[in-house]
Design goal:
This protein is α/β, with parallel strands linked by helices and about 260 residues long. About 45% of the residues lie in helices and about 10% in strands. A 5-stranded parallel β-sheet has the order 2-3-4-1-5. Helix 8 packs across helix 9, helix 9 packs across helix 10 (about 215-235) and helix 9 runs parallel beside helix 11 (about 240-250). It is elongated and about 65 Å long.
């Protein structure tokens, strides 16, 4: 029996972060390893900067899961929605008592913030105190901020300059080039249980790369819509016109 090339074990191109699809071919694994090493060495603050859709959230959640798996050493605090009003329940949300009292187990408190460019200035100012060298008898707090480039601009302000001075590492994630998009799409299809050679042509890859501008989230959206169009047509495989239809409905331009 011939297998349908459009049959997958699970959806290969989702618009939501999926750690099963973490791809290490774009430098994100090196960033992940560097973040962990810096945390082990006691770095108070690190930043990961990228435009929307380049994989900040997946990297943040991978780091969170890693810290949670070492619960005897780390106490991770995860803040995924910094645009919310933090004034009233900030202490409760972050566990202020963990920062002001001695920690008998001596675990390190690590704060991970996604979309950190949206943090209120009050929060960022408090981070300066939290990340400063700790008093004797307790572990200090560490933080990793995942943010859009606006955060870098905010940290140049006079009030937040001490926070910028605490940042030991600042990593940047860039859009994919054409070769990386090819590998990225192929790897996702393989992990979802299908053969990329039966689905991806060089023309399809070129179109997805140009239309997405190398942004993986957009590439996922285009491929998801294209595969749905192929199924709707009753096609036995993915055709270039399915991809063109997907780009048209995604409001992107193909040169």
């Amino acid at each position: 029996m011939t297998l349908n090339p459009l049959d997958f074990t699970f959806a290969p191109f989702s618009d939501t972060p999926d750690l099963r699809m973490f791809w290490d071919g774009h430098g994100c694994l090196q960033i992940f390893d560097s973040l962990l090493l810096a945390l082990v060495n006691g770095a108070p603050l690190q930043t990961v900067i990228a435009e929307p859709g380049l994989g900040k959230t997946v990297l943040c959640r991978k780091l969170l899961n890693s810290l949670r798996s070492h619960k005897s050493r780390y106490r991770p605090l995860y803040l995924p929605y910094p645009h919310l009003d933090l004034d009233s329940d900030l202490d409760q949300m972050l566990g202020e008592d963990l920062l002001t009292q001695e920690a008998p187990d001596q675990r390190r408190t690590v704060l991970l913030v996604d979309e950190a460019q949206a943090l209120p200035e009050k929060f960022l100012l408090r981070l300066i105190d939290w990340l400063s060298p700790p008093e004797a008898g307790r572990q200090g707090m560490q933080a990793v901020l995942f943010a859009q480039p606006e955060l870098e601009e905010r940290l140049q302000g006079i009030a937040l300059r001490p926070l910028a001075d605490l940042a030991g590492n600042s990593f940047k994630i860039h859009p994919f080039d054409r070769k990386q998009i090819r590998s990225y799409l192929s790897e996702r299809i393989v992990r979802a249980g299908a053969d990329p050679e039966t689905l991806l042509t060089e023309r399809i890859i070129d179109t997805v790369w140009q239309a997405s501008n190398g942004i993986p989230r957009l590439a996922n959206t285009i491929m998801r819509k294209a595969l749905l169009a192929a199924r709707h047509d009753g096609s036995e495989t993915l055709q270039h016109h399915h991809v063109l239809s997907a780009t048209a409905s995604t409001d992107v331009t193909v040169s």
